[in-house]
Design goal:
By secondary structure, the chain is an alpha/beta fold. It folds into two domains: 5-125 and 291-310, NAD(P)-binding Rossmann-like Domain (Rossmann fold), CATH 3.40.50; 127-288 and 317-337, Dihydrodipicolinate Reductase, domain 2, CATH 3.30.360.10. Helix content is 34%, strand content 23%. It is built from eleven helices and 15 strands. It has helices spanning 16-25, 41-48, 59-63, 80-89, 104-117, 131-141, 166-169, 172-175, 178-194, 291-304, 312-330; strands at 5-10, 29-35, 54-56, 70-73, 93-96, 121-123, 148-156, 197-205, 218-225, 230-236, 244-251, 255-257, 260-262, 274-275, 336-337. The chain has a nine-stranded mixed β-sheet with strand order 14-13-12-11-7-10-9-8-15. Strands 3-2-1-4-5-6 form a six-stranded parallel β-sheet, with helices on both faces. Strand 1, helix 1 and strand 2 form a beta-alpha-beta unit. Helix 4 packs parallel to helix 5 (104-117) and helix 5 packs antiparallel against helix 11. The longest helix is centred in the C-terminal third of the chain and has 19 residues, at 312-330.
């Protein structure tokens, strides 16, 4: 095999197929094999995508294969921090799905391992590579917004029984909370675009219609940003609505509402918002997500020895925000400082 980096995957579920395709097709990588708890599932997934790889019987067997330089964790969150820490400590670069874990202790363990190992990491907070948000990031980098006044993001996507991971998503041990299992997308994109949050005050509700949830599936949080601006985050994974992802950022010189912008300064004579045509975050289907762009970015980080803007170190801050929201909600809305 002439390609430079061998890739081993943990998990052979819904999202794993997207990683298999991306690493199969990248000019620097090849898929060595997959470990999955269900025998035969990994082999079927590789065959489906034309990959002649090895099915491992255990994580230890995968980690003993010296052909592997990159480990991808796309199994459920209850093993994520532990397995990724083990992979990092063997010197492998790590691609990790979100959340990093469902408790602060797990996430701390992973960050400590990655720091000690000195390997490169990327977390699949995939909306950072969505064209709508890359356009917004460019506007902000150009200084178009002025001073931030208010920012909000909402993740509204009911988890239904038809989803392959449903039994895991609704459990406390593998889902965690509305924000760790799903709303983390909203928390991460707001951090990336609007900056760090210092304090939150949150409320949760439910389950109201679906008793399978072992935690409240509805959460809303008021935010105070480091620069004094205020905002809101919400996560709703119970209810009847198609996938909706709202992002609104208001500044002194420009306001942005999803893929629409308004600015009298930069667009003289503007009477309202104008939309920029782009690919929007309008689906929870994993094939809609920009894994290809994410992995291209990550391979550049490895080759150039630089950290990803979505490394485990950065996602730790997103997790800290989610944990603060959960802590405040558990205390009935009592304000909580974000513990970075």
């Amino acid at each position: 095999m002439s390609k430079k980096y061998g890739v081993g995957l943990i998990g052979a579920g819904w999202v794993a197929g997207e990683y298999v395709k991306v690493f199969r097709d990248h000019p620097l990588t090849w898929v060595v094999g997959i470990y999955n708890k269900t025998p035969g599932k990994a082999s079927r997934l590789m065959q489906q995508h034309g990959v002649d790889g090895k099915e491992y019987a255990s994580l230890d067997e995968l980690l003993k294969d010296d052909r592997i330089q990159i480990v991808v964790h796309c199994a459920h969150a209850d093993s994520r921090a532990e397995y990724c820490a083990k992979a990092a400590l063997t010197g492998r670069h790590v691609v990790v799905e979100k959340p990093l874990g469902t408790s602060r202790k797990e996430v701390d363990h992973l960050v400590e391992a990655v720091t000690k190992a000195g390997v490169k990491t990327v977390t699949s907070v995939v909306l950072r590579w969505n064209p709508q948000f890359q356009t917004i990031r460019a506007l902000l980098d150009d200084g178009k917004l002025g001073r931030l006044l208010y920012a909000e993001a909402d993740y509204w996507h009911p988890i239904i029984k038809a989803y392959p991971g449903y039994p895991y998503y609704v459990k406390k041990i593998s889902g965690g909370s509305s924000f760790t299992v799903a709303g983390i997308h909203a928390a991460d994109i707001l951090r990336w675009l609007a900056g760090e949050v210092e304090e939150v005050a949150a409320f949760s509700a439910g389950p109201i219609a679906n008793p399978d949830f072992e935690y409240p599936p509805l959460t809303v949080a008021a935010l105070r940003f480091a620069n004094g601006a205020i905002g809101k985050l919400s996560s709703m994974i119970e209810g009847e609505t198609p996938y909706i992802f709202n992002t609104q950022i208001f500044g002194t010189e420009m306001s942005i509402r999803n893929n629409a912008v308004h600015s009298s300064k930069w667009y003289p004579g503007a009477l309202g918002y104008w939309k920029f045509p782009t690919i929007e975050p309008d689906s929870g289907e994993v094939s809609h997500h920009p894994f290809k762009t994410e992995i291209e970015h990550f391979m550049e980080c490895i080759e150039n020895n630089v950290e990803s803007h979505a490394s485990v170190h950065d996602t730790y801050k997103t997790m800290a925000l989610c944990f603060a929201i959960d802590e405040s909600a558990a205390k009935g809305g009592q304000p909580v400082k974000v513990k970075y």
